[in-house]
Recover the amino acids of this structure.
């Protein structure tokens, strides 16, 4: 029998009609001569009624069915006596004239319902049950709508969907590669791509003009909250376009996605701020724009008042900045503020000074220093009675980090963030390089193929760390949703870039010679960007971990409790690859 | 300056207008005071004219440009004096008022034009140049149109695009896995998936109902003509549908693809023939339906005529079958037929008997045996004067293989195949198992998750090799385009299947226990199929190797001459993975 529609879609327009439905038993209530069954499928739940009146045989079958049995039912849609306004299908029910049990089910290890209380690993071990839960299916649907919108919009805009290799060459620059041993070339390895970066640039060299791909990327990194060994990127590259034109194209894409997934009309153009402005105003290169509480420069207002910490910081070229917590004076006790002080120490801050604003003026341990400056302080901090002003005095980076993170933490505590808002912002004009404490040298802030600003090209040879880049990040609700840049398309600039990164001519040639050779043959000016699909889906589904929007993710230890991957393999498999493992000891 | 349109799209409607174009120099003709340049981009070529009359500066620049330089030009579209009817843009030309050289280019190692004479490895080494050639860009565009049609059609039909893992568990059953060593679990390995088979079945268990994915698959096999280490599958799975319903859904998809890529109206339903019929009529499970020349059973017509080879074959339960080559009597000399006899020996055939049909009757070395049977033979073979009848007498399999391949080889030689035709056919009702000479046991003809026909379920325990399966292949022009089946959704059937395949209870549990456990929890009836995207694109682009429709393929030795993958890696990378290579000797 062919299904009439999804169980979750049976509504008043089917009244009086015969329908065939297929789905799972959500729950069963047995009233003896009357049995009610909630039948669930991908689209929702409908109430079935079994009674001698409709079919004795069906009633008999219904006596033995249990949760998660798979049923095919035939019946008539009728009005429900006690309508349930909380259900999409709450006004109707189906009087079952025929039922077939298509499959039976054991008792599931957790409920098939939202907000369950099961461990992450149990959920992953039974992922096929976890995904039956409506909130999980909804997340998968949102992710699907994003990809559909991407394909549609980019196709309409002349982009070609082109696949690049997953078995490719290892490039030790960057994150750690996953390796794939070759059986044909002993001692040789493919690497899984960290991104299709160079291949998409080669496609621009090939004249493809507009490329995109929804591409899997792989990084063998230590795992944190929202990292996965494999993740997915909406990857785009365009020839002959400026950074602004690429941003405009991307905005069209975001508009389409927001509309298709959530029915939201995204206003464009999306605001653009420079990296400097983002750091100054929000203490972050991925500012959450859903609320204010911006960082205020307090130097002028506090200097010379005799508070030594501030004065000496300013004398040594440092900064004194503050955020003003609206209504924070009452809400934050001294103990509470001490906790915040602890919190910001991880960013290198030595202390957190504070003032409360009362109707009688400023209070707090350092208030006595600022009797004369009250007006300037209130003006600079944009504070009013009832507010709390939190100060950090240190070098530029520490001030930004400490107040930037504090701003977000307090906004969450104070419930200042409208969870229904989606605030995008472009952060542009990044530094080309950043200093890496780990490598003790400058590294590429984006990647080594990013084009410096035209006016900074000469600096590349002399003062590389002063260069700014033609790069841009798109930020959503405080998350880096994606980023991109105009790329280098000429060999001499690429060579200068590698030199600035500390490569010798020989080491650059050995590692990237094949790519620089390509630049000899007429590459067009080009640029692009990549959006993190997992993160995008996570934000639109209002989840707090990308695992919730990936069908079969790895757990926090990069393993997969369902299939038990990774696993030991047969000795023959290793022999064929000319490999020997020398594990210190089996951990699993 | 923003590009007005693609160079290849400038036509009469731009006459008299100023345009900005960006592209590559295809060729330059210098007539002194007049320089013509063919400017090429993704969409084609347009003729530029440089002259003192339009711009002295532009003319000067044009004197120094060479092939494959990248130009931005501004100019006026005018009618061309000598229209070129072979060019889309042949009626117009652009009088250049301004030109900027965006990049220079060295001389390319081969021409940027169709039908070049360069080795495969040279083309792959300079793939970014190879892809500039119009026929290659066209192939990429056809592939893109296929994927766009797939996304659109399946989205319209309620399928969800869901990604499954690329880092997963090794399953030694099937082809050889590519392995990925784990850094977190020494001695443990992920495997790259040979297909998303079990994950898509799990998604049906999760209630996704309709799944699809354009999925990369990996097989570390010895390479043949059109095999690649990684290839792409249009992968689909549906719940609660019959094999016929799945086929109908697929036909809708094929219709959409044929229309979107080539503008062809595919007639549906696509013919369905059983596997038995395909083997009997065409000697192949992937029959090329673009021409006739079917295999004819000659047993009745030839038996008892005294030709020993035929008689003894038939007495021993073998077959005598023939194909009739229309007009082959004159075209095929004895020497030529001897070559064909050599050819079919690889399929186990011991000989090739033949008769030519003349106006005077049958001729040839064995004609003397069949003086009495001429009429029956002509009727059975559907032969007429001028035809050649080719006989093979052997067991069923050898007859099918030998005549099946011979049929195709001769059709190609005789030019009987209409290269503009696209003939699809479903081959259904396959045997569930096939005997593997390699493993000396029965193996799954499709895979171990294929559902036997309902009426054969009991045979699974008693005579498994007699079972037929609810499986189906879709064949296009003699190529297996894809295949699928209804899957097993109940644990007891899956257990019986593994048993029939020679698994013990323990070995089945060890390897597939995690999957069989899932079947305990109410899996719906489901099935699906997968189409080979590379092969589909190859056929629609009329290429003879899938390398021609893959942007960056591996060569025939599974290596990639552009980036030199696979490559040796740093010792540190192996140490981190607790691996040692014990290569007998470096091959590269």
């Amino acid at each position: 029998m062919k299904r009439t529609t999804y169980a979750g879609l049976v509504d008043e327009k089917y009244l009086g009609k015969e329908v065939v439905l297929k789905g799972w038993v959500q729950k069963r209530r047995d009233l003896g001569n009357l049995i009610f069954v909630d039948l669930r499928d991908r689209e929702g739940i409908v109430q079935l009624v079994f009674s001698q009146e409709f079919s004795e045989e069906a009633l008999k079958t219904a006596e033995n069915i249990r949760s998660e049995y798979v049923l095919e039912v035939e019946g008539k849609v009728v009005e429900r006596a006690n309508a349930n306004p909380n259900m999409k299908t709450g006004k109707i029910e189906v009087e079952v004239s025929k039922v077939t049990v298509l499959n039976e089910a054991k008792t599931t290890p957790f409920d098939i319902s939202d907000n369950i209380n099961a461990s992450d690993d149990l959920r992953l071990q039974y992922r096929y049950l976890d995904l039956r839960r409506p909130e999980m299916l909804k997340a998968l649907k949102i992710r699907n709508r994003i990809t559909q919108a991407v394909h549609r919009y980019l196709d309409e805009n002349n982009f070609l969907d082109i696949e690049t290799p997953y078995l490719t060459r290892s490039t030790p620059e960057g994150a750690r590669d996953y390796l794939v041993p070759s059986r044909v070339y002993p001692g040789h390895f493919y690497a899984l791509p960290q991104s299709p970066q160079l291949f998409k640039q080669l496609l621009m060299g090939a004249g493809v003009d507009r490329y995109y791909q929804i591409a899997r990327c792989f990084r063998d990194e230590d795992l944190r909250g929202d990292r996965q060994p494999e993740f997915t990127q909406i990857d785009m590259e365009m020839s002959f376009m400026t950074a602004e034109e690429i941003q405009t194209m991307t905005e069209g894409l975001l508009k389409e996605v927001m509309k298709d997934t959530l029915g939201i009309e995204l206003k464009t153009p999306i605001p653009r701020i420079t990296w400097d402005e983002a750091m100054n105003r929000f203490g972050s290169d991925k500012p959450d724009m859903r609320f204010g509480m911006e960082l205020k420069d307090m130097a002028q207002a506090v200097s010379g008042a005799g508070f030594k910490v501030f004065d000496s910081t300013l004398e040594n070229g440092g900064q004194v900045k503050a955020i003003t917590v609206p209504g924070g004076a009452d809400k934050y006790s001294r103990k509470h503020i001490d906790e915040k002080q602890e919190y910001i120490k991880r960013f290198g801050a030595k202390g957190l000074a504070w003032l409360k604003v009362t109707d009688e003026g400023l209070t707090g341990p350092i208030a006595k220093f600022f009797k004369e400056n009250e007006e300037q302080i209130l003006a600079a901090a944009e504070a009013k009675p009832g507010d709390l002003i939190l100060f950090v005095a240190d070098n530029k980076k520490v001030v930004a980090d400490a107040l930037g993170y504090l701003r977000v933490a307090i906004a969450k505590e104070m419930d200042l963030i409208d969870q229904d808002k989606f605030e995008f912002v472009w952060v542009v004009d990044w530094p080309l390089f950043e200093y890496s404490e780990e490598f003790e040298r400058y590294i590429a802030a984006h990647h080594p193929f990013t084009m410096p600003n035209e006016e900074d090209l000469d600096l590349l040879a002399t003062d590389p760390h002063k260069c700014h880049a033609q790069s841009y990040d798109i930020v959503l609700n405080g998350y880096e949703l994606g980023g991109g840049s105009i790329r280098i398309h000429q060999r001499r600039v690429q060579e200068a870039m590698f030199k600035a990164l500390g490569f010798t001519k020989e080491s650059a040639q050995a590692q990237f010679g094949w790519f620089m050779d390509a630049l000899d043959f007429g590459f067009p000016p080009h640029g692009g960007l990549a959006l993190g699909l997992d993160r995008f889906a996570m934000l639109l589904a209002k989840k707090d971990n990308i695992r919730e929007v990936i069908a079969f993710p790895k757990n926090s230890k990069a393993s997969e409790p369902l299939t038990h991957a990774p696993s030991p393999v047969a000795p023959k498999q290793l022999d064929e690859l000319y490999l020997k493992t020398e594990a210190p000891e089996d951990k699993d």
Chain A has a mean pLDDT of 95.
